[in-house]
Amino acid sequence: MVYLDRILKACESVGIATRTIDVPGEDAVSQERELGAAILRLNEDPEVAGIIVQLPLPAGVPLRTVVDAIDPMKDIDGLHPLNAGLLRLGYEGFVPATAHAAMEMLKRSGIAVEGADAVVIGRSPVVGMPVAFMLTMANATVTVCHSKTRDLADKTRTADIVVVAAGRPGLVAGGMLKPGAVVIDVGINLVDGHVVGDVDFASARDVAGAITPVPGGIGPLTNALLLAHLIRAAQRQTGGASGGSR
Ligand code: NAP
After folding, report:
1. Residue whose CA lies nearest to ligand 1 atom number 4
2. Hey, which of 2, 144, 146 would you mutate to test ligand 1's pocket, going by the most ligand atoms within 8 Å of its Cβ?
3. d(CA 158, CA 101)
4. Which atom of ligand 1 is nearest to the CA of 166?
5. Of 20, 23, 80, 210, which is the most exposed, with the fewest CB atoms less than 10 Å away?
6. Are 108 and 204 within one domain?
7. CATH for 15
């Protein structure tokens, strides 16, 4: 709900009409059916330019069948296999807004990505893998870490850029970083009623050359880029522009 409220407010602030659909269903089978049917109705609705599915899905509802149902032209968070494939091949399409935000943060901050050693912690299709692909396309040398990675600190300590998207508060602390490293904290975790990232900001800020805070870092940029994707989707559907999300 943290994401959804902020996305709805961001849309409202720029005059974009939104529709929130709570999908009914008593069990995973009926929820999957209802969710699929709702997405198909939105695909066919000419007044709807973009669709996002709020994750995580209810237990037992497979992500695959849900994202497959979204019209790739309305898939503004880049989850449909067509858009994921376009990203993988380096072609233009819709990319996940959070991954786009991580790259945009580096770009707008003047961080040199080409030739940099980058570590991405997390390999989800929504954040970790798209970021890893985009960093690779931008000529970084990328190591992807995950829950089975042995000695995470050994990997992060040599990285020029560390992107953390694990959903584990305090996973990365200052002692795990190379002095001057750039740290992008994608994590959003609720701890004792407070939103925190995956990085221990207090220790990391003294070592890092640049670091994104949580809240206030990647989250707001993600929402802004989601709206930019939506506008591009609307333009493409009305023949106003041919570009994708990058
Ligand atoms: P996810 O699907 O749960 O994936 C988490 C990834 O982290 C997995 O690849 C997992 O490894 C890895 N991981 C978990 N524990 C680890 C550990 N101890 N060491 C190393 N890797 C570990 O989560 P997600 O959807 O990618 O989201 C990640 C975080 O980003 C969450 O906090 C989420 O709330 C946040 N998020 C933020 C935004 C935003 O706009 N800022 C948007 C989306 C998500 P395995 O693959 O081995 O399980």
Report:
1. 124
2. 146
3. 23
4. 7
5. 20
6. yes
7. 3.40.50.10860
